[in-house]
Amino acid sequence: MFLESLENMTFRKFVSILLLGLPLAGGAGCKRPNLPNAVKEVPSTEAPAAVQAEAPAPVPPPPPPKVRQADTKGSVIVLCYHRFEDRPKDSMAVTPAAFESEMKALGEHGFSVISMQDFLAWRRGEKSIPEKACLITIDDGYRSGHDVAWPILKKFGYPFTMFIYTAFVKGGALAGGASLSWQELAEMRDAGVDIQSHTVNHQNLRIKKGKYQSQFPSYEEWLRNETAGSKRLLESQLGISVQALAYPYGVHSDQIRTAAMEAGYEAAFTTYGQRLTFHSPADQLGRYAIESNKPKIFTDALAMIGGGGGMVETSASSGAAAAAVTGQLAAVSMLTVPGEGETVRNLKPAIKANLATMGNVEPGTVEIRVSGVGAVPVKYDPGTRLAEGTLMQPLKDRQVTVLLSAQVNGRRVETRWNFICDAIPAPPGALPAPTPAPGAGKAPVHPAPAPAAPAPAPAVAPRASSQPAVPPPAPVPGSTPAPGVPPSAPAPDAGGAPSSPAASAEPAVSGGVLR
Predict the structure, then answer these.
(1) Residue 400 near residue 417 (C-beta atoms within 8 A)
(2) Residues in Cβ contact with 223 at an 8 Å cutoff, skipping those fewer than 6 apart
(3) 150-164, 211-225, 443-457: which range is least confident on average?
């Protein structure tokens, strides 16, 4: 019994000692050994395959941008006014009542009056315009444009352009009591009136030896000052961009047109009334110069046929012969093939024109030139008044200009029109030019004693005689040179102030029909 108790005590002590020793053994250093090449275990951050998001589908590339087509369907007339007086002193002034009546007539005849900026944007192919559009322009910078015409135009909501010759602005060498000031022009600018250039001195740009040109080393320097100098002065005084030029008296030549384009103008206007199309040359855009004693000019404008005047010098003009070979363009509604703005696919199309509206054409003097080709053989029938040119070589350019000239009553008269040859691809990056809508660029033809009735035809611009110049002020420095130009000196204006040329009488239409 004693031995049994002793064994039980011994067993219990052993168990107690064993239990007390376990914690000591755990803290004494039975650690897991650190192996030098052991790799730490990094917990995985990957989501289970079941919850991983699916990869997004590839996004298709955007469609290529659409190429904007130039809208060639519109047509435009441009009206040119000067002064507004209750009792007009000359034909360049119209009464306020007559002006308001004419503005009302525009709407009644379906015209939409557009701004110069809309016109230029259309010409650049950036926007469309109505098919019967009208630009209203007021030349020189007379106060009556501000005080009389502007309120009437506000009444109709019509935008308009002021063509300013800078020497006539208050403080300028040619300014007078009827001149606007720079502050008044700024007021008009802030109200949305468009302001463009009418040169510095409003002098006939063809005159090479004017008495006010002596301060310039050459005619070319003076011409640069008149074109580029006036543009810079208007831009610096008014903080605007000047993009259009109106030739004084409508007078222009190859050299003058070149100087205008080199000066940075997008458009240059003369004073032979015509329907303007998308393809009308940018450097000779015709305007109807409205005169109080010639109501037919406004009537012609509403009909989009010929009216007004303006001088153009042909390549044949030179020296003392300039006056003999410079004349007005035909009174329009001339029938042509191809028509103005038409698209053809033949590299050798027939070139035809009915010259009935040109007047008494002298047989044997008719010439036809085609851009990129040159002069072509011409047949002219005095009985039918039909002139036909034959292309001996194919056309070279997609955009084609035809120049037709003839001797009429001892004076050289020239007209031109444009068409597109679709057989020649457009240059890379060029806007495609669709075929014009029916009737675009065409004008009605007056009755003629021909066996068949004429079809509608494109309007072609008339050009007429010029009028006097006015003395210049001090030059505005800097511009771009231009080549020489033959002289022509019209007589000075009795009043000493500039005015636009009177429109020449239009010849009666007679002759045949294009076949």
Answers:
(1) no
(2) 205, 255, 256, 259, 482, 485
(3) 443-457
